[in-house]
Amino acid sequence: QVKLLQSGAALVKPGASVKMSCKASGYTFTDYWVSWVKQSHGKSLEWIGEIYPNSGATNFNEKFKGKATLTVDKSTSTAYMELSRLTSEDSAIYYCTRSLWDRFDYWGQGVMVTVSS
Amino acid sequence: DIQMTQSPASLSASLGETISIECRASEDIYSNLAWYQQKSGKSPQLLIYAANRLQDGVPSRFSGSGSGTQYSLKISGMQPEDEGDYFCLQGSKFPWTFGGGTKLELK
User: Fold this and answer.
1) What is the per-residue pLDDT across B66-87, written as a single tens digit (0 to 9) for each?
2) Which of A46, A106, B30, B55 is the most buried (most CB within 10 A)?
3) How far is residue B1 from each of residues A108, B29, B98, measured CA to CA in Å?
4) Hey, is the C-beta of A103 within 8 angstroms of any chain B C-beta?
């Protein structure tokens, strides 16, 4: 069955960066886009961007350009997202998802990022 | 960006009651609309896609309808396990955007 296993929670200092992972299993990793979604304050959801593992092509929400970097390692079926220059506004839960044409059908368990000195 | 306005923000329903949640898009999204359920502390789960198609494994009491800019999710017969937050997502145009969510509780 399809699974997306994300890395653990992170506590990071303001101004630092954090890199999280999303290991896919149960499907051909290179056949599907992987999207990343931010959930703030326990409710509101924002799409950050997506990456196509086969080519490395990306699409981003303009709001997150310069904030998020998306990469993949095809050899381990793992997608990564790095967030830079962190502020308190970046404290949130971050999900990776498998993207289809018009929806996200599978979600990882989420990574809680806390930005605090 | 396409704005997704979801209503109501919260809802309390009795066991067996039929409820509806609405999402209105700021422009035509051509039925590229999905609904998700999120239980406390869990990841969102896909319920409905393409406005009215039931995701595999989702109970048939969930249904979706709508077109253009107006969409709705209906639960025909509230069950205790249906408590949670519900979100809509438009997948018509980048950036993909979500509704603000509806908190559904059992009365």
Assistant:
1) 999 999 999 999 999 999 999 9
2) A106
3) 26, 12, 11
4) yes
Residue A61 to residue B32, Cβ atoms within 8 A: no
Q: Is the pLDDT of residue A42 over 80?
A: no
pLDDT (tens digit, 9 = 90+) per residue, B56-65? 999 999 999 9
Tokens standing for residue A13: 């200092």
Are B100 and A102 in contact (CB < 8 Å)? no
Residue B106 tokens read as 């059992």
Whether A43 has its CB under 8 Å from any CB of chain B: the answer is yes
Cβ burial, residue B90 (10 Å; 0-12/13-18/19+): buried
Q: What pLDDT score does B44 carry?
A: 97
Which residues in chain A have their CB less than 8 angstroms from residue B86's CB?
Answer: none
The amino acid at B7: S
Is any Cβ of chain B less than 8 angstroms from the Cβ of A45? yes
